[in-house]
Write a structure and sequence with these properties.
It contains 7 helices and 10 strands. It is α/β, with parallel strands linked by helices. Strands 1, 4, 5, 6, 7, 8, 9 and 10 form an 8-stranded parallel β-sheet that branches. Strands 2-3 form a two-stranded parallel ribbon. It is globular and about 45 Å long. The mean pLDDT is 93.
Length: 249
């Protein structure tokens, strides 16, 4: 039974987090192209506007008003299948998305032996996508869980990520998605890492959280995203869109 229509209208902006798109995919990280299209057609039917990263951040900072219904669509890790399956759907629907890239792939050191669904986008493939459709952001250099390593190692990884993007010549945004949603928990260490982010020019960061992001945001370095899984039914997607998690009441 579809319960999402019983939920009150959301006041914030859901930030949707995807990973792989692959035929037959239905697990925590992989969604099928058919299910993805079903979700996005629902968004269009319900009147949602898919924002660019720049548009979302302006709203998050209180610099411009929120549209009546809006989402931010994000993809993590930079899988080649995002270009193959998600990008054409973005063009079809007129939506925009953010691809957060694991930046060691920008150096050309891509493992050609990976399973096809795990292969990453090359710089040339990233360059072929229209920047008004797909914006690029940072997902670390070696995809390290920053809550499980020291502050200097975390800062060095982020610095390497920025340098890789700068060396690639790609247009990108100095916006960070924490790998695994992990970040320092200790208040002093967190403040230290946040300053290191600012020193590198990083202006915002995304975690997980599974809540609709209230806007303007209270903390630009702790923007919450909603984990969309390939196992979610369309009804469950509708609930997550308004609540962030599958607990409608």
């Amino acid at each position: 039974m579809n319960l999402s229509w019983l939920l009150p209208e959301i006041k914030g902006i859901p930030v949707l987090m995807y990973h792989k798109v692959w035929p037959g995919g239905a697990d925590a990280l992989t969604i099928s192209p058919e299910r993805l299209r079903e979700q996005w057609l629902l968004l269009k039917k319900e009147g949602y506007q898919a924002l660019s990263l720049s548009e979302f951040l302006a709203i998050a900072r209180g610099e411009q008003p929120k549209p009546v219904r809006a989402v931010l669509i994000t993809f993590d890790d930079g899988y080649r299948n995002n270009l193959q399956y998600a990008y054409p759907l973005l063009q079809e629907t007129g939506f925009k998305a953010v691809f957060f890239i694991i930046c060691n792939t920008l150096t050309g050191k891509i493992n050609k032996d990976e399973n096809p669904e795990d292969q990453k986008l090359t710089v040339e493939e990233l360059r072929c996508m229209a920047p008004d459709v797909v914006q690029l952001g940072i997902h670390g250099y070696d995809h390290k869980h920053l809550g499980k390593i020291g502050i200097e190692e975390a800062a060095a990884d982020l610095k390497s990520a920025v340098e890789a993007f700068e060396g690639s010549g790609l247009e990108y945004h100095k916006v960070f998605a924490y790998p695994y949603g992990g970040r320092p928990k200790d208040g002093v260490v967190k403040a230290d890492f946040r300053q290191k982010m600012k020193d590198l020019g990083v202006t915002a960061a995304f975690r997980i959280g599974n809540q609709v992001s209230k806007v303007p945001v209270s903390d630009i370095f702790e923007i919450k995203r909603i984990d969309i899984r390939g196992t979610d039914t369309l009804d469950e997607f509708g609930i997550k869109l308004k609540k962030g998690k599958l607990k409608p009441f």
